[in-house]
């Protein structure tokens, strides 16, 4: 059986929700114990940014999360890319929001356009700043990122000695792994190629049919008919002694699908035979 608090499962804001507070309120009502805020405003106005959340609202978020024992994380806006120095200010803005609401982790994407050496060099200010504020920093695989990219990035991060790096880890996105060209419809091959020096500290959970990044709730796509892949994934996470938040990255028209997914996922984690 899992230790209480070792695995937390919850949901995330969505640009398709009427307000960012709607999915958060649902998390509270459903007894979820983790939640992720994702500032994601589209060009046509749908969604939200940190500036849309007032200081009073931020304080209320912090209080509600503390009262309900909900661990909060923040997904940096998609524009944030260490390779583009002009986006660092957007990251700092996200950090300020995270601190205001009492989040413990910030998630950013990994980019491989200029190689891992260049990415990790430009990542150092992000590592330093989050270390100074005792925030965890997770780095996520996008659909273009290979397991080799991940392995190399964390090999290089491990070689950094002049700033703390023990708060930095990977966010494993299971749906992105499933649409990566070389592991299409085989996210288990992707995760088992991630080497042991890579600490997985955060998970984004959704599924697809290997065609595109659908962000389906788990057990409503392929796993609805055959949960073998999810079970194998959980077994791998248990082998790695994963401890952290699992974020369901969707806001379905039928929100109860989130409750079903959470309950089934925790049941698999708590199965001593897995």
TrEMBL record:
<keyword id="KW-0378">Hydrolase</keyword>
<dbReference type="InterPro" id="IPR013022">
    <property type="entry name" value="Xyl_isomerase-like_TIM-brl"/>
</dbReference>
<keyword id="KW-0413">Isomerase</keyword>
<dbReference type="Pfam" id="PF01261">
    <property type="entry name" value="AP_endonuc_2"/>
</dbReference>
<dbReference type="InterPro" id="IPR036237">
    <property type="entry name" value="Xyl_isomerase-like_sf"/>
</dbReference>
<dbReference type="GO" id="GO:0016853">
    <property type="term" value="F:isomerase activity"/>
</dbReference>
<protein>
    <submittedName>
        <fullName>Xylose isomerase-type TIM barrel domain protein</fullName>
        <ecNumber>3.1.21.2</ecNumber>
    </submittedName>
</protein>
<feature type="domain" description="Xylose isomerase-like TIM barrel">
    <location>
        <begin position="27"/>
        <end position="253"/>
    </location>
</feature>
<dbReference type="InterPro" id="IPR050312">
    <property type="entry name" value="IolE/XylAMocC-like"/>
</dbReference>
<dbReference type="GO" id="GO:0008833">
    <property type="term" value="F:deoxyribonuclease IV (phage-T4-induced) activity"/>
</dbReference>
């Amino acid at each position: 059986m899992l230790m209480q608090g070792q695995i937390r499962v919850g949901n995330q804001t969505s640009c398709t929700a009427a307000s960012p507070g709607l999915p958060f309120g649902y998390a509270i009502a459903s007894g979820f114990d983790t939640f992720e805020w994702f500032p994601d405003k589209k060009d046509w106005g749908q969604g939200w940014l940190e500036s849309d959340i007032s200081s009073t609202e931020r304080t209320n978020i912090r209080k509600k999360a503390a009262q309900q024992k909900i661990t909060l994380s923040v997904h940096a806006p998609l524009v944030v890319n260490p390779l583009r120095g002009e986006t660092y200010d957007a990251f700092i803005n996200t950090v300020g929001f995270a601190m205001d609401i009492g989040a413990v982790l910030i998630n950013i994407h990994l980019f491989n356009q200029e190689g891992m050496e260049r990415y990790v060099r430009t990542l150092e200010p992000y590592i330093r700043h989050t270390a100074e504020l005792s925030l965890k920093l997770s780095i996520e695989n996008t659909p273009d990122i290979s397991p080799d990219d991940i392995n190399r990035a964390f090999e290089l991060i491990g070689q950094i000695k002049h700033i703390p790096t023990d708060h930095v880890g990977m966010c494993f996105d299971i749906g992105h792994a499933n649409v990566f060209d070389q592991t299409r419809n085989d996210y288990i091959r992707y995760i088992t190629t991630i080497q042991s020096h890579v600490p997985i500290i955060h998970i984004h959970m959704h599924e697809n049919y290997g065609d595109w990044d659908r962000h389906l709730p788990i057990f409503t796509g392929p796993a609805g008919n055959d949960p073998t892949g999810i079970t194998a994934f959980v077994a791998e996470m248990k082998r790695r002694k994963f401890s952290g938040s699992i974020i369901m990255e969707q806001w379905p028209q039928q929100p109860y699908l989130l409750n079903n997914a959470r309950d089934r996922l925790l049941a698999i984690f708590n199965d001593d035979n897995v």
